[in-house]
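Hey L., structure's done. Input below.
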Amino acid sequence: MGYTVARLTEAELPEFREFCETNWGEKHPLIHNETAFSYYYRKDGLINFVRAKDDETGEFLSVGGFILANDTPSPDVWLSFILTKKGAPLNLGFQIIEKINELSNSRTFGVNNIRKKTCGLYEFLGYKTGAMTHYYRLNPERAGDYRLCTVQNPVYLPIKQHDTEFIKIENKEALDCFGFENYSELRPYKDRRYVEHRFFENPWLRYEVYGAAQGGVLFALLVLRAIEYEGRLVLRLV
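Output:
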């Protein structure tokens, strides 16, 4: 089977969405909602999606969407969405990834939520795999009345005194005081445009952004999102 892997075009969008609905099993909100699709995948007049099409039939075989963390010549990139038709060549998903790396000239490439059984294949191709560590802090004032989780052995960590000040960043303009370029060696490096778009321009979610400062100088940004459920509040550090 011959096929061509290339960036998705505007003219291919109707067929692309039909392919996704058929092979996903339903309409995906990030694909079929134009506001969501534009927010995540349109940038600088391009669509950040790659597709593979059968050379003979012209049918879609696989698609992959990606998000850039920064606008440098060699950005850090995340794979955000991937879908392959059943019966398509087994290596097609990885060819989609290769094309994304080629088009973006990526410095690093990340994929979330991969299956354990595919870790070995990713590692064989030169990727590092692992599981993220998660942490939480309980509110001692709710001891014995937790509704969102079952806590068998509650531990209440002390709050240490320190000289760090947290300053709320009220709007995008207030980011002027943070030197994003000083952190370009971080991987992934999230530049100012990414932070503005992700946390200040999100059409649905509301975030609170704080700057951590010592001696009046910001050295880090913290992003929080409050989630209310069953009369309780979870404060997520994004």
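Helices lie at 13-24, 29-32, 34-41, 92-104, 119-124, 192-200. The chain has two domains: 3-124, 140-237.

-- N.
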